[in-house]
Amino acid sequence: MAADGALLLSLVEEFVSGLQDSKAKDTAAGVRNGQFTVLQLVEALGLSLTSSQPHTRARGVQLLSEVLHECYGNLTEREVEVLIAFYENRLKDHYVITPSVLQGLRALTKCAALPPGSAVSMLRSLFQDVHVQLKGLGADFVFGFVQSMDGERDPRNLLLAFQIAKNIVHRGYDLGKFTEELFEVTSCYFPIDFSPPPNDPHGITKEELIETLRAVLTGTPKFAEFLLPLIIEKLDSDVQSAKLDSLQTLTACVSQYEHKDLAEFLEGLWTSLRREVFQTSSERIESAGLAAVTALTSCLSRSVLNSDSEDSLSTFLDLVLKDCKHHLCEPDLKLVWPSAKLLQAACSASSRASHATTAAVMPSLIEQYSSRTQAMFFVIETLTSVILVQNKIPDQHLPLLSSLLCSEPMDEGDNRAASGQPSHHAMRQRCLSALAAVSTRPGVVRESTPVLLEVLGSVHVEVPQIDQLMSQLEELSCTCSHPLSYNSAAKCFSGLVNKRPQGDSLDSLVQTMMKRVCRELDSSSSPVRTQALTLMIWVSKALLLRYHPLSTALTDKLFSLLDDTDLGAAAADGFSLLMSDSSDVLNRGCHADVRIMYRQRFFSENSAKLVQGFNAAPQEKKSNYLKALSNIVNKLPKQVQITELPALLSLLLEALSCPDQGVQLSTLSCLEPVLVDPPPALIQQLEALVSRLLALTSSPTMSVKIASMRCIHAISRFPEHEILPFRARVLRALARPLDDRKRLVRSEAVQARGEWFLVGSPGGR
């Protein structure tokens, strides 16, 4: 056996370094004759595959692929599984290695022992990691894709096909005359109707299919002429999920469109949207319909007019006003509130829309607001929308605000006060809230102060000091340039948010803060993005600790920032703050509202988002997702780690290759307890795991070296037949740290190497 091993190493050396191509056939003959196995060949290639020279690594992979081309017929399913994982990993290497990897994968596809699901896995890796110039094929490539996808029913293949179609659309491929064909072959699955079977091993969800298909259909204005009639048709469905999907797809697509894409469909779209708000029995459908009206109006508001163009916004608003305005003057009818909501949705879309809408409806409402509670409340709601959208108080409405705020409460015996409509006090408070929401802006303060002064003299209005404090803390958090000051302000603000009573007051406070923070974060030129991120992370933690539903919106925003060029790393660090105990605020010693198992709940609700984000992220941003994952998992209780880590194993293996040494160390500390009783998923990834751990034994950081060797030590206790192929490689790698200048490193290396010497030895473990 020793002679065979020496022969194999000699063949590898002569092929890789001596450039003797004929040695590939000699190696293949040795595999066929049983002198050595394919996995022993992989082990013998170890030094070649870790060379710093891409061409040396390429020769090593080429040798393996040529041998497989001759010997694929005798491979076991386990060997095929290991080789597929090896090749998929090599696809991430230098581009000169790719041709040999493709040759090897091609050979593996001919194996009779191809494991279930491996074909999908290989295709996903190819599309994700192989970068080829398909655009040059133009419309021919699109036509070929349409033909290959037509009639597909397997959800695994559909998800992959949708992802490819998304890339075709978003990367600007020339669709040519096959635009409609590409739309038809994908839109025939809209809306998605899929229920995964129980215990589905593939983990494909209906939501995943919906989101991916939506990204295809809404990805280009070229689909507008086909998609908009389809949405109108699907909104006639009696299936609630189909309606909801159609409305959300409409909202998504109009953000990509121009007014000319919508012009011929405006009447049909409005008819469908009006029906969903007027006649719906579902709050979700109504909310989605109103959101679509706002998005549609916003799109039309972006149109640039010239002397011969039609004003599509005016056309659409005329339709809205024609169907809604007259209902506002009939307050006893059931359509007054749906009409009011539709007008507010249109009004809030843009300054142009708010001017046109208020000019049309306010005069008649002002005439009747003093005698009709319903009209009065709608006046206040509309004024609020106008003030927030236009960022100012329109001059013509200043007297109305003053009059309403200073007016006497209605007679308690008045039938209108008992009609179930909002009280006079509630409406007055709504006006004050509208003013307060915009009065932090200098231009608005000049307009609002006279009105407020005329009120703080005719009526008694209590303004709790806590509200003033919260406002000042938020301002300091978002504008101060001194790190200690804005960090401290953010902590104080979050502590107060955590203890604020549940209800509309808290929701309004958080939502107002969210709008401001998101505005700063979404502006790449903002000088206070770091301050906004700091405040958002602390408020996310304050809400997460108490299970507040608005925490999801904030943490979702934090996830999205992992792709940000400037803030991605800081956002990843933010997850450590979310999951860690805080010593000076937001802890039980400060009487914070801290629910049990909030870390586990956060992990279970967000781990899938992290995996999806990592898979979709460009290569240069993946390290941020790995850092975030490491920060989250490292703070989970050990028992939870042992239970949950197998599902995240592929990402954790990637994290071991992350250049951030903090990520490496925290990932190693997560893996170590799992290695004591390894799950099957980990055994299947042994090749990748061992390779990464051995690489870390040469880390410049002592703690990383020690942790990696402890993990290698733990692997020595795995079933002997699983780890025996790695013995020689591990012993070679552990020889180097025996001479390390740090005693603790040398000690750990001695212990680990001693255990690996016993693997496969007579009288061993």
TrEMBL record:
Residues 451-715 form the MMS19 C-terminal domain. One of its GO terms (biological process) is protein maturation. It holds the Pfam family MMS19_C. InterPro entries: ARM-like, ARM-type_fold, MMS19, MMS19_C, MMS19_N. Keywords: Cytoplasm, Cytoskeleton, DNA damage, DNA repair, Nucleus, Repeat. The keyword Oxidoreductase does not apply. It is found in: Cytoplasm, Cytoskeleton, Spindle; Nucleus. The keyword Cytoplasm applies. GO terms for cellular component: cytosolic [4Fe-4S] assembly targeting complex; MMXD complex; nucleus. Residues 42-279 form the MMS19 N-terminal domain. Belongs to the MET18/MMS19 family. Key component of the cytosolic iron-sulfur protein assembly (CIA) complex, a multiprotein complex that mediates the incorporation of iron-sulfur cluster into apoproteins specifically involved in DNA metabolism and genomic integrity. In the CIA complex, MMS19 acts as an adapter between early-acting CIA components and a subset of cellular target iron-sulfur proteins. This is MMS19 nucleotide excision repair protein. It comes from Scophthalmus maximus.
